[in-house]
Amino acid sequence: MYATVPDLLRLLAVPTFAYGAYRDIETRRVPDLLWPPLLVLGVVCLAVEGWNAVHAPDAFAFRAFALRTVVSLLVVGGLGAFFYVVPVGFGGADAKALVTISVLLPTYPTYYFDGFVLPLVPTTIRVFALTVLTNALVLGMAYPLYLLAANAARGEVASVMAVGKRIPVERLPVEHGSLLEDRAGTHFTGGLDLDALRMYCRWRGVTLADLRRDGALRDPATLPAEPNDPTDGVVLDGDEASARADGGAATVDERDGSEGRGDGAPGGGDTSATEGDDYDDPWGAAAFLDDIEGSAYGTSPASLREGLDVVTERDAVWITPGTPFFVTLVFGLVVAFAYGDLLFAALGALGLV
To answer: Where is the composition biased (Basic and acidic residues) (predicted)?
Structure first.
């Protein structure tokens, strides 16, 4: 393989981003320490390539380099900066990743092998960061189709079957995303965030299994006098074992998706205290949000109460799978290095480019 030093150094983005994707899947948190080294590396690579372009025999080389760099920084980096300031559906890691890619990968790398060159399908403008972004968008559009097919194969039919999955409630402590149903059985997006659910349980010093077993915990008088640190809702070591101990693997029959009901009551626990109560603040939802002095991922007292009612009364619920854009972006990065631009290839096959 023959390539320039900057192009070889840019391959370091693959294992670094892959590690970030692993952390994102496991905890929904990407370490901030990933970005400064890649940004410094990107600036160094840009400086070397700029120097080479200035001294290239082709007078057009520097103008082409400058144009691609400007497009990368303004379009991809600008999107990242915008989504960092206005996080509409984007996390901070997604935004930082776009900015990093715009600096590290403005121009197409070239890797020569015996008989072929990678990437196989470059675009006309040859802005590599733009290829990574469009690849991620194309791959991201395929995920709802997968969910739709997987749910249909399991016989799980609902209005949210293209954006969610149905899981045992006891698995919620180790899942990511948000609820897709309310107490009335209506399916909708924007339900209780599962990170907020973990924060509430830790603040109160109880497990989800405790809430399901003891309906009296709906009474705000049972709140702790000295609440615990709610953390930020990240999945911690031991949550997986706790979910297994709570019976999370056996609540829903994997073969037909049927629900089991313990002791003849929703959730298998004592719900006597949840029926007909007249609490001013059921579950202590408002007290929790007031105590943490902020928003738990946009959670309101009403949405927290609704979510807690659902997860204590049901044995299985629909949730968003919570697959982060960052993971899709990493797949787009790998495909860009190995193949090239998926959208450009598709347009070429249709004779549009």
So the answer is: 252-262
